[in-house]
Amino acid sequence: MAAMVQSGVFRRLVQIALCFLFISISLVKPDDEQKYVLDAEMFAKAVKDKAHFIMFFAPWCGHCKRLQPTWNELAEKYNNNEDSEVNLGKVDCTVETALCSEYGVTGYPTLKFFRPGEEAVKYQGKRDAETLEKFMKETLDPSTKEEPEVAATGPPEAKDGLYELNAGNFDKHVAKGSHFVKFYAPWCGHCKRLAPTWEELAKDSDGKVTINKIDCTSEKPVCDKFEVRGYPTLLFIKDGQKIEKYGGARDLDALKSYVEKMQASGKEAPKPEKVKKVEEKQEVKKDEDKPSKVVTLGEDSFETGIGTGLTFVKFFAPWCGHCKRLAPTWEELAEKVASKPNIKIAKVDCTVDKDVCKKAEVRGYPTLILYSNGKKVDDYNKARELDALYKYITERPHDEL
């Protein structure tokens, strides 16, 4: 009997010991993957209050695992510094699927820089600590950005028919004749898979259409000029102007057929003057056909304009590319809420009414701010699709409406 009691006590002690062991294990410093991870709620508050550099990742992703130590090292450096203007964080896309979808994450890791009131900037450079830090500093303060060194300006030499271009010789090289150009990044998987086929295409070229490539990680100004948004981007350029973006199959036969077709077509790019006149004509026609329901506010009308009901205000600059892309959606939003008397969709041109924008603490374009009965309610930093904007403005709490 005594032996049984002793045995029971022993088992109980073992259970207690294992329990304490489990607790101690759970308190161990988390592994690299779980450090600085934000959930959706934490993320929304973080990017609203301060600049954040975010890594969207998946635990099973090999590239993410390799980046984790570097990312954590930078987070340790910046997040624990009270004077730091930026923090680093991570979002696990296998957990926060809706959040990752909202910000257009389709591959891992995706790195995006968020500043309060501004559209996120996607990072596409090298993933070493030095380059990542340089990007953060330049994004926070563009005046610190170093002008890239212009490469040799001499004419490029073809290697087996393939021209490797740079900022120094690109414009002159494509100024006359027909050129098929691959804009790529060395780390891009699709680019790597296309590389041998592109080389074969160059070898088979008769020279009437040159086959070219340019590295967008080192020659960013050229890629920005041609509005390259992803890799690889294949553009057919004639006499210095983009004719069209290639979107077909990337096997050798398809690429050769495309080059032959473009060469035979003699297709020309429209002259800039003509394009401008057509756009102006379309703009006038649009204005005549359908008056805008977006309320334009300024120095004399701002306070009155936001004084009653809900007013969703877009602070913009005419030269801002993001603003231009948002403009038609903003018009559609105004049309869609036109039947709701308590909601107004408005805009302020910050190049005209600078004082209004200064008082609203606008630091980037476009900045979207919601006002209720004259008081600021919220900075909008989420998706800018029509459905998301409409849901946001119409599903406000009853005390605001």
From TrEMBL:
Region (Disordered): 263-292
Family listed: Belongs to the protein disulfide isomerase family.
Comp. bias regions, Basic and acidic residues: 268-292
Keyword field contains Signal: yes
Keyword Signal: yes
InterPro entries in UniProt: PDI (IPR051063), PDI_thioredoxin-like_dom (IPR005788), Thioredoxin-like_sf (IPR036249), Thioredoxin_CS (IPR017937), Thioredoxin_domain (IPR013766)
Domain Thioredoxin: 23-140, 141-264, 273-398
Signal peptide: 1-30
Organism: Saccoglossus kowalevskii
Name the record gives this protein: Thioredoxin domain-containing protein 5-like
Record-linked CDD domains: PDI_a_ERp46
Keyword terms, alphabetized: Redox-active center, Repeat, Signal
